[in-house]
């Protein structure tokens, strides 16, 4: 199925959660000089103009990134949120929030001379947009590969990588229920080839609860050190349709990342809404 286009949902609260975690993980890894390969298995576009027809149709960004943008001066004292909002501001027109960057930019803008970035995108239209956009500094274009293909298959085939460190973002649309267990099988293969990899997996929290099968399967997969973060904009018991929450898994969680994210998310929650909540825990410990 190739119907999903993220432009309709760009900048929503789940994007904020996903990209805040991705940014934080990358920043933690970049504290060391040794090279990193970044891989994004479901890249989408590099950036999304908020005035585009698709984005304007649902305007999900208004309850997501726009709320944070309006409160950015009050949030500058929070280290992680302040840095994230400063990075976001580099793409805007002064005080105006005009676009929201996708994961290719959040990763690509961090790439250094010694690093590598591979972006997979299967949807032909989305890949075309990605190919036309700049997501790394001009001097780092040679460090970037854009691949029109299946990211889960591509990830396994790309391993092991040449660099000593690896960071992966897996972010499917989950339009098909089979995708949940496909992610688990991919992770099992990938972690056998690259046990040291830091892997982030995003998943939606929906009333149908299909993510639970994925979490249960991962719990029995033999993969260790899986940390879970879930942001809900309303209590699950109140949700009747649509996405009520956003989930992130981090395998091989960098030291201190959980505390940094917890502090940042707790500052975000009052901006997100009075009924919002966050819970984090180890899905699988060492």
Characterise the protein shown here.
- With 286 residues, the protein is an alpha/beta fold.
- The protein has one domain: 3-Layer(aba) Sandwich (Rossmann fold).
- It is 36% helix and 20% strand.
- It is built from 10 helices and 10 strands.
- The radius of gyration is 18 Å and the shape is globular.
Q: List low-confidence stretches.
A: none
Shape: globular
Q: Name the strands of the widest sheet in spatial order.
A: 5-4-1-6-7-9-8-10
Domain count: the total is 1
Q: How many whole angstroms does the radius of gyration measure?
A: 18 Å
Query: Can you tell me the CATH architecture?
Result: 3-Layer(aba) Sandwich
Order of helices and strands: HEEHHHEHEHEHEHEHEEHE
Please estimate the helix content: 25-40%
**CATH class category label:** Alpha Beta
Strand count, sense and barrel status of the largest sheet are: 8 strands, mixed
How is the CATH topology named?
Rossmann fold
CATH superfamily (homologous) name: Vaccinia Virus protein VP39
What is the number of E strands?
10
Mean pLDDT: 95
Strand content: 15-25%
Span between N and C termini?
36 Å
**Number of alpha- plus pi-helical segments:** 10
* Helix/sheet category: alpha/beta
List the helices and strands and how they pair.
Elements (H helix, E strand, L loop, with lengths): L12 H17 L6 E5 L6 E3 L3 H6 L6 H6 L8 H11 L9 E3 L1 H6 L7 E6 L2 H9 L11 E5 L2 H8 L6 E6 L8 H15 L4 E8 L5 H9 L6 E7 L12 E7 L5 H16 L4 E8 L2
Parallel strand pairs: 1-4, 1-6, 4-5, 6-7
Antiparallel strand pairs: 2-3, 7-9, 8-9, 8-10
Helix pairs in contact: 1-10, 7-8, 8-9
